[in-house]
Amino acid sequence: MKVIGKTTTSNFTFESLEKVRFGEYVIAKNTDDEDVLAIVKNVVAENEKFICEAKVIGVLNNNKISVNRSPIKPNGEVKFCDDGILNNIFYVKNGLNIGHLLTRKNVRVYLDTNKLISRHFAVLSITGGGKSNTVAVLCRELGKKNASLIILDPHGEYSTLYHEDLEGKVKVIHPTVNPSILSPEELSDLIGLEKDDFDKRVYLEYAYYTIKKEFPNIGGMEFIEKLENLLYEWSKSAEVGWEIKYYNPLKRKYDRRKAGEKDFIAIISLYDIIGKFMIDFALHIGDKDMIEEFEIGKINVVNLSGLEVHQMITLVSFIAKHILSKRVLYLKSLKDINSPNERIKTTALSNLKTIEEHYKIVIKPLLLIVEEAHIFIPINEQTSASLWLGKIAREGRKFGVGLGLVSQRPKQLHPDVLSQTNTKIILRIVEPEDQKYIQRASEELGEDLAKDLASLGIGEAIIVGTAISLPSIVKIDKFDGIYGGKDINIVGEWMGLDDW
Ligand SMILES: Nc1ncnc2c1ncn2[C@@H]1O[C@H](COP(=O)(O)OP(=O)(O)OP(=O)(O)O)[C@@H](O)[C@H]1O
Predict the structure, then answer these.
(1) Can you give the pTM of this predicted structure?
(2) Residue 479: band (very low, low, confident or very high) from pLDDT cuts 50, 70, 90
(3) From the CB of 131, is ligand 1 less than 6 Å away?
């Protein structure tokens, strides 16, 4: 194969008598006689020849790639890059072995585990493109490294996650929340109060602090029942225009408030909402703190299926907030135990004891994978979940809390958070708007790769970012275990009716 026509430092054309495919890796010499690795970006068949346009990747030395500063030697020889060189380029020690180069079945592609997690990542594709399979393969690889994972799973796709390498490592968590450890704000969100429903939110807060004051040790459903009873009493007082007595935590004393018609309406509708919440959410109200259930070194799958969106958002916000804050507190306490200040040291020791007893998962770095991330980090509003997931995206790297966003609606994802995901695993994206949106969120995804997105097959991904040696098209392994992602065989189930 031979270079033809003019060349530059970044592109050249060559002709070949043997077949060359898009995405193929070749080596040519530059004018400093260095080996330059390039990737075929376009092939034109002309009579018996193939005219190929190649894009320079960089100068090859000892399997490392450096910037190419000299034009490709005109009329120089071009040869296929052999698998051995590519395997060395794409191998990463302690990396995640997720698949092979699309054009090279024998070249395995590894992702750098530390860079993938510490700098966050996103898995994006149209529905059916292979996101869940990709996440399952990542779990398989991370499980081998005893990773601490939390998967927030709105469709319950990972509750059936099984692989022989993950024996005993998958823990499915039925999301329960103890309302008495939520903030009044979180509890208002959880029962479905609108952000601007101030009247109800104020009375919920009054009732919340009054019950906390009068029954400091109750939790779970008992706490909600006490709230409901108090609201009922208040509604009776408000109905006849009496005063309402409530505990004010700021003044640390009881206050009184004259209740009128407007208050009565707010209180009685709040009472009804709480009653409905107790019925709809009963299975998710507990007196334990869900965070205590997460186990270190395991894949903790929080099955959110069956919940309403506002309930999912509140639970995800609660998990993200408490995971980050407990991890930060743990690391701070590890430093504070060496403080000369006795009070700081004692507090730190007590915090470490509590965390090591109840919240082991934050003792080591951990990864939070958010499926259907566009629900929780929407472009058009600041939800309580996006507040805390955004904090993890911005600050998590310092504390060893990684974020993995999975979405089939990239352009509905908040751009600030998507752009914080340094590595992008992008499966088939057909919508030009989605392609442009992803491109704006990741500088490595050049025009040439972006236009390939629509032609990717199932499980074929363009991977860009710091966790992969080179931006590449990778065929992700088909997960050789079980997860909930396989398509339902609709006609097979219908035809099976004959046997009913
Ligand atoms: N890398 C792959 N190799 C072979 N088949 C794959 C691969 N990835 C996914 N598939 C198959 O494609 C189908 C859809 O996969 P998957 O559920 O991962 O897609 P998805 O993008 O998560 O879809 P959804 O958005 O509906 O969850 C499944 O039947 C799966 O077995």
Answers:
(1) 0.88
(2) very high
(3) yes
Length of the chain: 500
Cα 466 to middle of ligand 1, angstroms: 25
316 and 459 inside one domain: yes
Residue in this structure with the two tokens 């909402």, named with its chain if needed: 273
Segment 439-446 mean pLDDT: 75
Instruction: Evaluate: CB of 357 within 6 angstroms of ligand 1.
Output: no
Hey, whose CA ends up nearest to atom 11 of ligand 1?
A: 130
Q: Is the CB of 408 under 6 A from ligand 1?
A: yes
Residue type, 77: E
In ligand 1, which atom is closest to the CA atom of 127?
25
Does one domain contain both 448 and 359? Answer: yes
CA of 460 from ligand 1 middle (Å) equals 10
Do 364 and 351 share a domain, yes or no? yes
Does residue 447 fall inside a structural domain? yes
Q: How many domains does the chain have?
A: 3
Mean pLDDT of 22-26: 88
Containing structural domain, residue 449: 111-175+294-476
> What percent of the chain stands above pLDDT 90?
72
* Residue 189 sits in the same domain as residue 152: no
**Domain final position from 266, 284, 302:** 284
How confident is the model at residue 289, as a pLDDT?
85
Report pLDDT for 451: 78
Q: In the predicted model, is pLDDT for residue 485 greater than 70?
A: no
* Whether residue 172 has its Cβ less than 6 Å from ligand 1: no
ipTM: 0.97
Burial string for 484-494 (b: 16+ CB within 10 Å, else e) reads bbeeeeeeeee
In this structure, what are the phi and psi dihedrals at residue 461, rounded to the nearest 5 degrees? -130, 140
Query: For residues 54 and 329, what is the distance between their CA atoms, to the nearest angstrom?
Result: 51
Q: Which residues pair with 200 in a beta bridge?
A: none
Regarding the beta carbon of 476 and ligand 1, being less than 6 Å apart is answered yes
Distance CA 270, CA 474 (A): 53
If one residue of 125, 132, 141, 159 were mutated to test the ligand 1 pocket, choosing by the most ligand atoms within 8 A of its CB, it would be 132
- Looking at residues 298-303, what average pLDDT do you find? 96
Q: Please name every residue paired with 263 in a beta bridge, in sequence order, or none if there are none.
A: none
Mean pLDDT for 225-247 is 92
Rounded distance from Cα 486 to ligand 1 centre (Å): 6
